[in-house]
Amino acid sequence: MKYLDEYRDGAKVRALARAVSDAVDPGRGYAFMEVCGTHTMNIARYGIKRMLPDNVRLVSGPGCPVCVTPQEYVDRAVALARLDDVTIATFGDMMRVPGTGASLTDAKAEGADVRVVYSPNDAVDYADGERERRVVFLGVGFETTAPTVGRALTRADERGLGNFYVLSAHKLIPPAMAVLCESEDLALDGFICPAHVSAIIGSGAYEGLVERYGTACAVTGFEPLDILRGIQLLVEQVNEGTARVDNEYSRVVKPEGNPRAQAVMEDVFEPADTEWRGLGTLSASGLRLKERFTGYDAFVIECEVEETRVDGRCICGRVLAGAAEPHDCPLFRVECDPEHPVGACMVSSEGTCAAYYKYEQ
Amino acid sequence: MDSDEVIKMGHGAGGRLMRRLIVDVFAGAFDTPELAVLDDSALVSAEGERIAFTTDSYVVRPLFFPGGDIGKLAVCGTVNDLAVTGARPVYLTCSFIIEEGFPVADLKRVVASMVAAADEAGISVVAGDTKVVERGAADGLFVTASGVGVFPDGREPARRPVKPGDAILLNGPPAVHGIAVVLAREEFNLTAAVESDCAPLNGLIEDVLEAAPGIAFMRDATRGGVAAVLNEIAASEGVAINIDEASVPRDDTVENVCELLGYDSFYIANEGKAVVACPADEAAGAVEAMRRHKYGKDAAVIGRVEEGKPRVVMETAVGGARILDMPLAEQLPRIC
Amino acid sequence: MCLGIPVQIKELMDDNLGRAALGDVEYTCDLSLIEDPKVGEYVILHAGYAIERLDEEEALETLAMFAEIEAAAAAEGE
Fold it and tell me: Which of A185, A313, B230, B327 could share a disulfide with B15, CB 3.0–4.6 Å?
């Protein structure tokens, strides 16, 4: 069994979509936010929105690392890439994110050594084989990815690789969700909680949110059956007038999460006040390397970072927070399109603006 | 530096970036009616005889991969560019730009591969050129091929207006070549047995033309994937195309690799696949003809042409719908 | 930031590594984040690491639930 295809069964999906539509009260609106880029991707990939009644609104939140990475981080990565002895190793997702002047793809075209890797371990192996180069791994991603980068770093440490570095932009999801709940702009009924972030932090991580803000939560897998089921659970919670953490993705997510992965994160990283593109600086919402690992911290490497100039007209932040739609942005389609993205919402192929651009042609 | 002023890898990926480059830098400058059409081959005439004339260059890393090599790609790719216009390929020329230090034994292997492909396609290689560049100035070997094809018995080119109601056919699973090459590069610690689908399709196409003389359009899908070709057809013909995801042939191994790396198989390169648009009443016959041929065993009708805005919509296997748009640049493995 | 695919552990190797498979595609993945991994188990692969194990019993129960929903819908349709 693959435990993948079975959750994409067309007949079951159609049956479940009908069941969800039946459960929806035509007399009210429902607004659910997904906070994971993979959910945004798959909702689009499987055409989920078209299966639901119009009064169920799916809002894309700040769950894509591409979208929430501050421009300044890209500028710093580009500056490091331009150093002669530096190799940038990165997940593919980051390559086209626009910095103030250039993206990593642009830097590569100019001659910078920028490599796409699938795993942070690939970057460590590369560093091992090229001792005269400083290899900087771009640590982007949420709690799903941070433990893998943490472990890659301890592997580098065990092998005594003084030429391996991590530039951490890791972020934590629950603090961002809390900020969204606090926002007055937003009228959310519930969250489609991330699948694999939750595998690490546990479904219990959202209990505090539910208690404080009364928002319905459903930890949801990524396949179409999972997504529809997660939405069904949220619809039921809203109809009942209750709020709790439902766990649709029980085959992977436990209430306590993965303690081993959590331990790796705690060993290598500590929480830091961190800037989220469009949301501003949120307290204790990101991860930085612990002092013990300063020798591997790429933020310590001196380089000339281009002065970050953000296009003030870009409203990505509000779009990411679900408070505005692409049409509200003066740049949308005029100066900002998939070939010339200004903000991150247009870079990621399923970022909110890119998706709207595509679907409304 | 303005990021539009230097060439990036994406400019060679068969998507929107590349198209813009071709239009802005090349087609506009050369300014011929044939180039303006941007077809697989130019349909020109010499002394009143219609011929198809095309050129293609091949750069691939690694040069040798399961199912083929740069030489086989050169012959098959050029043959296919001619065959999809309905021409019968007859002659090829090829030029080699060789890096200093390249082993002659490897060169002989490439040539042997080309001989085999040329034999299978029934074409002759009639001229060539050789250049050597200094170490580092080429990735081992670059090959450029040009090809000429004829239209026997006054056959018309397979270029008629594509109309709502026409069927869209594909001769087999997408993404096979691209994944074979990704695996051969050994960058991702993935192991799987995938052989490139690189093949000369002129034989299969002759069979299809016989079974479906009303064929409106054919194009071989290369970089940019099947999605690029579908979008090109929709745009140039001004039609909407509707694809039924469940009907598209799948190679399980290829799809599994795509899952792991986060690739969309519709956007990954092919070297032995043709997208065909034909009248609905000829579709069954055309698919039959493809399936009888070794390069079309898994052929299927994958969609249909409809009225509407020029775009490609895919009905997903689970009953939803998504837009399959023109790729921008090359696919990158992702974790999001 | 969550693309993770269920793969099956085929072989345990030294240094917390393991050979895992999705169909006939194999990958050498890092098992450091899994407590006591076993051959035959399914794990979720993300960025080259197994980030959590998949509980087959739960998986089958979830699938059974979806099958029930399908059956109920079919019954209604009659």
Answer: B327
